[in-house]
Amino acid sequence: MMWTTLLLWLGALLSVSYAQLSETEGTGGEEEAVELFTTPRAKMAAATSDFGYNLFRALAGRDPKANVFLAPISISAVLTQLSMGASPDRSERWLYRALRYHTLQDPQLHDTLRDLLASLRAPGKGISIAARIYLARRLRLKPEYFGVVEKQYGVRPKALMGGAKDVNEINDWVKQQTGGKVDRFMSKPLGRNSGVVPLGAAYFKGKWITRFSQSGLMEDFQLDGEVPARIPMMQQDNYPVKMGVDPDLGCTIAQIQMQDDVSMFVFLPDDVTQNMTLVEESLTAEFVQDLSMTLHPVHVALTLPVLKFSYSTDLLPLLSDLGECLHLSPSLFILLSSVFTSLTSSLSISPGLAEFLADTDLTKITAQTVKLGSLNHKVVMEMAPEGTQYASSSQVHAPLSYRVDRPFLFLVRDEASGALLFIGRVVNPRKLRI
Length: 434
What we know:
Blueprint: H1 15-24, H2 40-62, E1 68-70, H3 72-83, H4 91-98, H5 109-120, E2 127-136, H6 143-153, E3 158-160, H7 164-177, E4 196-204, E5 208-210, E6 214-223, E7 226-246, E8 251-258, E9 262-269, H8 277-282, H9 285-294, E10 296-305, E11 307-314, H10 316-319, E12 325-327, H11 330-337, E13 346-348, H12 352-358, E14 376-383, E15 387-389, E16 400-403, E17 408-414, E18 420-426
Parallel strand pairs: 2-3, 4-14, 5-15, 10-16
Antiparallel strand pairs: 1-18, 2-4, 6-7, 7-8, 7-10, 8-9, 9-17, 11-14, 12-13, 17-18
C-alpha cells in the first residue's frame, strides 16, 4: 500500500498572498479563505492552542536535546485570571495579545473560556487542570479582585502566608485539584520578593478507544548518537488510525482516537534525530485542524512506548521571549517563496508579554508596584494500553507498520472544540522522571 502524501496548507494566515499565488499560476479565479473556527468556543480553543504552540516552541528551543512537556490550557487559564487584575489600557491589552485573545472580538471572552474549561474537565477526557493566582500578603490587596475571579472561574486567588506554609498550601491544593496525581508541585519556598505567583498544573491519562493486546515488552528505542534505550512498549495489530506522510516536514503523522472525542497526534521523524524544529515551527491551530480533516484512515501494526512521567519548570523566563508569530507550514512556504522571495518561515510581531513583564500594571489587584515571582508549571502523564474495545480480528492484506521507536513529538487535542490539551517532545525516554 502506498503512503498518502499530505500538502499542509495554512492559507487562511496569508489569504491575500495565496490569492496572488493562484493568479500567478494562471487559475484566473480568486481563492476564498475557509474559516475553520466559526463558533466563539472554537475560536477561543484556537486562541489558547496557538498560545500553547508558541509557548511550546519557546520551551523546546531552550534546550533542543531535552524532553519537554506542556499543558498549555492550564497556563492560558491562570494568565487569564491574572488579566482580570490588569489595567485595561496597558497590561490587559498586552496579556490579551500574548494569549491571542485580540483575534477573538468576543465581548463575552471570560464566559467563553469558562465554558470551554468546563467542557474539557469532563471526566471521560482524562485531564485534570489546576490554575490559580497566589499573592503576597504584604501587598495591600483589593478584595474585589478575589471575588471577581472566584465568581467567573470558581477558584479564589490566595494570599500567601510566607515560608514553608506556602509550599504545603500550594502542594495540597494542586494535589486535590488533580485527584492526587500531581504531587509535590513545589519543593522549596517562594522567593522573598515574590509578589504575584500564577501557577498551572495538569494530569492526563486518556483511554484509547482501541486497546493494545500486548504491553510491557522491552524493546529498543533508538537515540540520536547514543546506545538505544530499552523501554516497555505496547503493540497491537490491525489498529485503526488516520495517517499521512509529509515529505517537507520529514515525518509520518498518525492520529489515534481516544475516548470522549479526544485524539493524539504523533509526529514521527523519518530519521533518528533530536532535531524536530521543522515540525515544531509548523504547529498552529489551523495546521492541526487541517490534519484532522486530511489524514487518511488506515489499519496498522501500531507500537507505542508505555510512558509515565512528570515534568516541571518555571515558565517565567520564557515569557519575555514569547512573541506573536505567524508560522507557515514548509509546503506553503516553498510554494510562496517563488513569488515572495523575502518571505521567512515566521513573521514576528510585537511581543506582548515582554512589554507586560517590563511594566506589570496590576491596578485591580493592588496599587503597589508588583512583579511576577514565577510561573511554575508541572504536568504528569501516563500512556497505558487500556481501551474500551478490541481491534478487529479480520486480517488486512500487507498491513502497514507504525513503530514509535525513536524521538518523536506528540500532542493531545480535544476534537469537539479543537483545544490543545497536552503537547510533548520525547527525545530520550531514559531521562523521563516519574
